[in-house]
Amino acid sequence: MAATRQHGAGPSRRVSPGDGGLLLFRVAGVPVLLAPSWWIGSLVVVVLYAPLVGRLLPDVSTLTSWLLAAAFAVLLGLSVLAHELGHCLVALRLGIPVRRLRLFLLGGLSEVARTPRRPGQEGLVAAAGPIVSLLLGGFCALLMLAVPPDGAVWLLVAECAVANLAVGVFNLLPGLPLDGGRLVRAGVWAVTGLRAKGTKTAVAGGAVVATGLIVWALFGLATQSEDRWLRLGVCVVTAWFVILGARAELAAEARRSWPDGLELTELVRPVLQLPAESPVSDALAASAGRGVVLVRADGVAAGLLDEQAAEQLAGTHPHAPAELAAEPIRAETVLLASEPGEEIAERVRETPAWQFLVVDDEGRPAGVLRREDLRAALVRGRHAH
């Protein structure tokens, strides 16, 4: 019943049946996918929950017990879906692109295309899911008062209440990758100004949550509780999910972090401006490890010279205009030299481009940053620590 968010590689990507699961529908353009593992998780829930239904409603048949257990598995999936839609819609409202939403083994995942820029955004998106779950759980709990007790309908309503309340409460536990962990990270980030410090604190919380789940499962076995096998199955899977998710968050933070003492000027290559109609062979020879901005006669930049495309073009048509081998300069491939290092690393990681134009505060070209140069510097920085 875990539900969380993950940062994807980029917002524009075609979704196919083999890319994350079965496409169910789209919400505000965001694909909602059902992963194959969801069926496995639901089967586990049905097998473990059916005997408990038989004890709660001793007068019902075995078939009815299995049907009610299957209904619980579906309601759990719908609860996770509602939870994730809460994250998704708030993220979109804040201008944060969402790549896709997936339902998988006992959980859900909203893959946002970029990291929230401020702790307030992180907190709002994280809180949206549990709020939706708790509201739905509370509504179903009130609905139970209007339904005759001890019947199949009452149990279905109770299942819906339990499913939503369980999803909401569990995800408020203070450890990554759960929403409670993201709230912890947002809080520490807001107080200290350091997102990395918030991540480390919330990852430690994730270890505590995973340990607590295993202890609770073992306690159920020791006390022979009626739901001990259901509890054991759910706790083991979710503890495994929390541990893997926390490790992934820590790794992602390491990729995002900017080494102390590293200046952007150390990584930026000098920039050379050439007419867009220059022969591609001449532009390639003039680059000599520098970034080349190709400018049209009207003063508008045609793009950055793509060395690989230029080499291919020069091999067959050396006198062709260099503009034919230009990589367009888009808003997302322009970096401000005054931007914080962490934001530059995040922008480069999220944007599908191999070189970026760096400009000063007045918009004048200050150099070109290549993805390979930044990656090498970040790897050196991590090894130095």
UniProtKB/TrEMBL annotation:
Key words of the record: CBS domain, Cell membrane, Hydrolase, Membrane, Metal-binding, Metalloprotease, Protease, Repeat, Transmembrane, Transmembrane helix, Zinc
What superkingdom does the record give?
Bacteria
Q: Name one Pfam family in it.
A: Peptidase_M50
Where located?
Cell membrane
Q: Which residues cross the membrane?
A: 21-54, 66-92, 124-146, 152-173, 202-223, 229-246
Per the database record, which ranges form the CBS domain? Answer: 328-385
Q: Does the keyword Zinc apply?
A: yes
What does the Swiss-Prot or TrEMBL cofactor note state?
Answer: Binds 1 zinc ion per subunit.
Q: Does the keyword Oxidoreductase apply?
A: no
Name the membrane topology term. Multi-pass membrane protein
What are its cofactors?
A: Zn(2+)
- Entries under PANTHER family matching the protein: MEMBRANE-ASSOCIATED ZINC METALLOPROTEASE M50B, STAGE IV SPORULATION PROTEIN FB
Similarity remark: Belongs to the peptidase M50B family.
Instruction: Write down what this protein is called.
Output: Zinc metalloprotease
Could you tell me which species this protein originates from? Amycolatopsis rhabdoformis
Record lineage: Bacteria, Bacillati, Actinomycetota, Actinomycetes, Pseudonocardiales
